[in-house]
Design brief:
CBS-domain; 11 strands; alpha/beta; 392 residues; four-stranded mixed β-sheet
Amino acid sequence: MGGSLRLFRVWGIDVQVHWSFLLILAYGAFIYSGQANRMAGALYGIVVILLLFVCVLLHEFGHALTAKYFKVNVPNITLLPIGGVAQLERMPRQPLQEFLIAIAGPAVNFVLTILLLPVALLVVGLGMGSGSLTSLLVYAQSRMMVPSLDGLLVYLAVTNFALGLFNLLPAFPMDGGRVLRSLLAMAMPYIRATRIAVMVGRLMAILLAFLGLGGNIILLLIAFFVYIGGRGELEAVESRYVLKDIRARQALNREARQLYASESIDKAVDLIMTTYQADFPVFDLGSNFVGVLTRPRLVGVLRTQGREGRIVDSMIPAQEVPMVGPETTLADVWDKMMENGSRVVAVKEQGRFLGLLTLDDISELIQVVGAAKEREDKEDKQAAQSSVSTVL
C-alpha cells in the first residue's frame, strides 16, 4: 500500500487513503458533470463518492472491530478506488471467528440499507406526491442519478445493498470467499478448505473479468486482485502448514556467528562478506545477550557513519526483540514476527538466550521442508488412489 496518506487514527486503527483514490473522485465528478450546471454537477459527484466511501469505511470497520474483539490486531484500513482493505495481522484459526469477521462487513452494508431506505422513500414520496407503491419505486429509481437529496439517499441505500450482496460472492479472498472457506474449514482441514475456496475464487475472477470486458474497468481490477490475492493467501496457508510441525529449537543455526557491543560496524561487514548470515546476536563482555544487529540496521549505519560506527549504537536493544520459547512452532514464530513487524525473534529458555530465528531462516525452511511435504502429500494421494482401485 505504498503511497498512502494517513487521515486519522481511531480505536488504534490508522485510516489511510491511497493516492489513486483521486481517480475515483475525478470519475464521480465526470459522471455528474453533464448537468445543466456542470460545476455544481461535478461537485455533487464528488460528494456522492465521498459519502459512498464513508459507507465503505464503515464496512471495513465492521471487519476490523470484530477482529479486534477476537484479539486480532488491525494496524490500518486503506481506501482504494475499488473499495477498502482492513489489514489484519493474522486470520483467527477458529473457522467460526473467521466467519464472523468476514460476514461483519456486508452486515454493516445491510444495516445501512435498512436505515437509509425508509428515509429515502419518504423523501421521494414527499417530492412525488400521490401514487402507488410501484410508481413510487419507479420514480425513486429515476431519481438515483439526479443531483438532489432524494436521489442521493436512494443511491446510497441501493448501493449499500448492492455492496453487501457483491461482497458475499464466493470470490476468495473477498468476504464471500472467506465465508466459504470458514464454512468448509468446519468440516475439513483448513488447508484443503483454502484450496477449494481459492479455486472457486479463481473461477469467479474469470467470470468477473469476462463481464468487465464490456468496458467495466472496476470489474477487471477486482478480477485481477481476486486472482492474485487468492494465490497469495494460499501460499501463506501452505507456508503455515509447512511450519506447524517444526519447533524453534530445531531451526536454530548452531554455527551462527555473534558480535560484541564494543566492536565496530567493520566487524559486522567482514562477517556478512564471508558468511551467509545477515542478522547477528550482540553480547556484552559478560556474555549477556544485549541486542541484535540486523541487515537493514547495518546498511543504515554504513550510509550515515561508515565503518567507524559502533555496534552498540546501531543494534536493536534486547528488550525490543520479540521472544519465543524453544518449543514454539515456527508457524507461531512467523505470526510473532508479523505481529511485531520484526525480521528476527530471540529464542530463550528460562531467560537463557539460545539463538536467533530470522525471516531468511524461515523462508529457507519453507522452501526445503515444503518440497519434502509436497512429495509426501503426493505419495499419500497416490497410495490412497491405489487403495481405492484395489477395492474396486
